[in-house]
């Protein structure tokens, strides 16, 4: 039998993990436990206190470890809000005298997406109370499930009590209590409550979870969305670790809420011990602010503030720092030797349409060492600088547009040097790039064009030493007493002083067709023009490289060429092999002004199979390859039916006529030691093999064309399994005296992670200098990870600048503790 009655609404919402929340914590004390050593208990108590204060997450780069993903659980289907309740039961009794309706036996109630299952349900029409007994299971519209033995609620679920309840939310958080009382639909009090985000043991559900928080009373304020714990204790596997007389935290549905965030602890020889106490202010749904005073034992208080706002078409944020130093003398002889120090960082990005965005980044500091002295911004996370040293802070204003076949980007850039060499860093205003591929054919082929405009200025020349003598005697510094010592035989001119402007436009056409024999012919042509103006300051040593004063140049480079490919295919029972000889012939005039103009954006050139068939092998616009050249090679690809794919490329480049651009020394000697400077280039080869999705192997090599000796060799291998992954890169490079590399370089970079047990992970990475026979940079870490708990430790070495001195290697230990939905905390300590 089934019938309808006017019904009720459940106001609870399912619990979701929060990325930004706040909490209040009262002092933590250690509980005596025979199961854990006192030192371990005390350490866990401290880390737990740090973790529970905040539910804010730590950046992934700092964590290194994250929770295992939870299995997805489908949401219950939505039911129309028609205000009616459907009841199904084995037996339904009506007591008209007492206005009672009783449903007995496999009772099921459905109302607006909420269902209640029980052995017996009694509805009192006079008091409008709903009483359920036996094996109660209530599922709300958001997927939260409540299990209980007895339930007595008003028909709108606003008031009542539940005995012996257990709540299972959609995101796998769980709550249990001997009794829960609900008042006005906004307050729920759990007596002898337990909260956890860990799954129960399948074999023994009565076994305590990995962690849980117990409270004599847990009060859930559903209006303010807060959880208040009274006489609470944190337990690991049922063992008490930390006790809190009282603490509060937003409920897991909260994404952002005003309050104190996780404190941070640090120590430095210049500011002593420091503690960061962040306060988060959720001002409005679309903007917020965070104030983080750092109280230090030797330098006073460093104020930090951040403001963020999200608008309909984008967002922006502002960070500000400031300190009135108590002891500026701690930075004597350094840029930080001043009373007041400050810094500002701003960034924003906004959409003009679905194809156009504009934005900015800005950094302004009182002195260039402010960030590193107080471990701010890019220096806050030592793991982020493991292999990449932050050398500059970028301030820029940009506009970018992306079409179906076109791209536009314009930006002005200011680099703030962290090394103290600000006068040698260029200011770019602006650099503009535009490229477009026509969506219709021209003469039966593809036509495209691109442009670039660059304008930059630099105050002081930037030189690099390339000999032992110039390096040992600092001959290439601007402070050198003998300007004649800064010669091309001793130094490279990495950056010119003055203003440099270049406008480039290039049009390209190519067409491919296949003849009846299966040969592929691709004729191509291009025309490029560069208009250059260089106003070079007459600084010591600069005239030895380039003429000073105002120089104009117009460089035009027409190019015609033909590429030929003839693939041969062999099919066998085990797979197929395709062998493709490739020949490319290019004709063009000599590079005009070769080596006589500044080179700002084409200073890097590595000749390998990736650019063997590039028409112009220079990496930027400031150099352009000229004269006749032929590139020849063979590509072989074998596809195994059960063995993956292996691809091999081997080839060589030939100077046919004219001036070899790579044999001409410019201010940075680009191309001289690249393997392309001789009429017949060095051999290049590469092999890439992927037997399956687990393994990948690749090698790249360059061999001397006369002796066959290896000039460059790189080998890389990676493997990914369910329980472990590993990657290894080996590099071996011959000396390149013209670029300042006077000895052979050889090293190994390895990284890997191993899941030693179901929830235990060990990770590490290291770089070994085989020439010096020393380990010069490494990181090792280990952690426990599951779907509700993370405990990890990392030891990391990374480089940083200190007050204009050469980069120094730092050592740091980092700890991480995370309780899902409660909070994640981390602590790092530099080691002398």
Provide tags for this entry.
832 residues, mainly beta, 32-stranded antiparallel β-sheet, 15-stranded antiparallel β-sheet, 49 strands, globular, disordered N terminus
Quote the average pLDDT: 85
Q: Provide the low-confidence segments as ranges.
A: 1-63
Number of strands: 49
Which strand-content bin applies to the residues? Answer: over 45%
Distance between the termini: 78 Å
Count every helix, treating DSSP H or I runs of 4 or more residues as helices: 4
- Kindly state the percentage of residues in helix: under 10%
Oligomer: single chain
- Integer-rounded radius of gyration: 35 Å
> Which shape, going by the Cα principal axes?
globular
- Biggest β-sheet strands, sense, barrel: 32 strands, antiparallel
User: Class by helix and strand content?
Assistant: mainly beta
């Amino acid at each position: 039998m089934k019938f309808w009655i006017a019904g009720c609404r459940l106001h609870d919402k399912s619990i979701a993990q929060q990325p930004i929340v706040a909490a209040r914590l009262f002092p933590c004390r250690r509980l005596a436990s025979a199961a854990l050593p006192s030192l371990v208990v005390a350490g866990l108590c401290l880390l737990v206190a740090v973790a529970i204060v905040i539910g804010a997450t730590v950046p992934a780069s700092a964590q290194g470890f994250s929770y295992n993903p939870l299995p997805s659980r489908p949401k219950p289907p939505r039911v129309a809000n028609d205000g009616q309740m459907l009841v199904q039961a084995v037996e339904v009794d009506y007591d008209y005298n007492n206005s009672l309706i009783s449903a007995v036996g496999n009772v099921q109630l459905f109302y607006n997406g909420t269902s209640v299952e029980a052995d017996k349900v009694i509805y009192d029409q006079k008091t409008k109370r709903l009483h359920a007994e036996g094996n109660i299971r209530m599922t709300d519209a958001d997927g939260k499930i409540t299990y209980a033995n007895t339930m007595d609620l008003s028909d709108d679920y606003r008031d009542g009590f539940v005995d012996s309840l257990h709540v299972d939310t959609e995101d796998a958080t769980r709550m249990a209590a001997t009794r829960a009382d609900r008042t006005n639909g906004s307050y729920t009090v759990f007596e002898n409550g337990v909260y956890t985000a860990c799954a129960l043991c399948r074999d023994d559900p009565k076994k305590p979870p990995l962690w849980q928080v117990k409270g004599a009373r847990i009060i859930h304020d559903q209006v303010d969305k807060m959880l208040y714990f009274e006489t609470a204790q944190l337990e690991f596997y049922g063992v008490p670790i930390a006790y809190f007389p009282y603490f509060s935290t937003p409920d897991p549905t909260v994404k952002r809420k005003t309050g104190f965030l996780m404190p941070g602890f640090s120590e430095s020889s210049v500011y002593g011990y420091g503690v960061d106490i962040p306060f988060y202010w959720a001002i409005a749904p679309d903007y917020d602010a965070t104030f983080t005073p750092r109280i230090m034992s030797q330098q006073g208080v460093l104020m930090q503030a951040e403001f963020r706002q999200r608008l309909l078409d984008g967002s922006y944020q502002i960070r500000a720092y400031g300190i009135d130093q108590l002891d500026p003398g701690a930075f004597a002889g350094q840029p930080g030797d001043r009373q007041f120090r400050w810094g500002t960082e701003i960034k924003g990005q906004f959409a003009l349409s679905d194809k156009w965005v504009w934005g900015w980044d800005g950094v302004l500091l009182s002195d260039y060492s402010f960030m590193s002295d107080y471990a701010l911004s890019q220096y806050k996370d030592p793991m982020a600088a493991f292999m990449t040293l932050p050398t500059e802070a970028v301030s820029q204003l940009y506009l970018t547009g992306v079409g179906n076949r076109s791209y536009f980007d314009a930006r002005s850039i200011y680099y703030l040097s962290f090394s103290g060499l600000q006068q040698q860093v260029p200011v770019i205003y602006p650099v503009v790039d535009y490229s477009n591929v026509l969506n219709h054919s021209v003469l039966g082929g593809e036509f495209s064009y691109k442009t670039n405009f660059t304008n930059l200025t630099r105050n002081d020349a930037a030189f690099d030493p390339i000999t032992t003598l110039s390096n040992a005697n600092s001959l290439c510094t601007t402070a050198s007493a003998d300007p004649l010592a800064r010669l091309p035989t001793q130094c490279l001119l990495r950056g010119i002083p003055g203003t440099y402007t270049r406008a480039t436009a290039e049009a390209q056409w190519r067409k491919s067709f296949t003849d009846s024999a299966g040969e592929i012919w691709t004729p191509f042509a291009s025309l490029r023009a560069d208009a250059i103006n260089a106003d070079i300051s007459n600084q010591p040593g600069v005239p030895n490289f380039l003429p000073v004063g105002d120089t104009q140049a117009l460089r035009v480079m027409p190019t015609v060429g033909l590429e030929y490919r003839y693939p041969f295919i062999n099919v066998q029972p085990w797979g197929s092999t395709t062998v493709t000889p490739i020949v490319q012939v290019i004709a063009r005039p000599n590079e005009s002004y070769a080596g006589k103009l500044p080179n700002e954006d084409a200073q890097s050139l590595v000749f390998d199979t990736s650019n063997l068939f590039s028409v112009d092998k220079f990496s930027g616009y400031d150099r352009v390859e000229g004269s006749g050249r032929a590139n020849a090679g063979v590509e072989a690809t074998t596809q195994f039916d059960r063995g993956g794919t292996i691809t091999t490329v081997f080839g060589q480049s030939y100077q046919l006529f004219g001036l070899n651009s790579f044999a001409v020394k410019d201010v940075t000697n680009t191309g001289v030691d690249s393997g392309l400077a001789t009429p017949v280039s060095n051999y290049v080869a590469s092999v890439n093999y992927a037997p399956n999705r687990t393994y990948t192997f690749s090698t790249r090599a360059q061999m001397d064309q006369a002796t066959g000796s290896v000039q460059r060799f790189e080998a890389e291998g990676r493997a990914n399994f369910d329980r472990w992954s590993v990657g290894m890169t080996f590099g071996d490079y011959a000396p390149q005296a013209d670029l300042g590399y006077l000895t052979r370089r050889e090293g190994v970079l390895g990284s890997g992670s191993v899941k030693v047990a179901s929830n235990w992970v060990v990770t590490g990475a290291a770089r070994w200098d085989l020439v010096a026979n020393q380990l010069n940079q490494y990181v090792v870490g280990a952690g426990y990870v599951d779907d509700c708990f993370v405990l990890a430790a990392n030891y990391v070495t990374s480089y940083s600048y200190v007050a204009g001195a050469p980069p120094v290697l730092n050592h740091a230990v980092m700890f991480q503790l995370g309780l899902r939905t409660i909070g994640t905390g981390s602590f790092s300590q530099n080691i002398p």
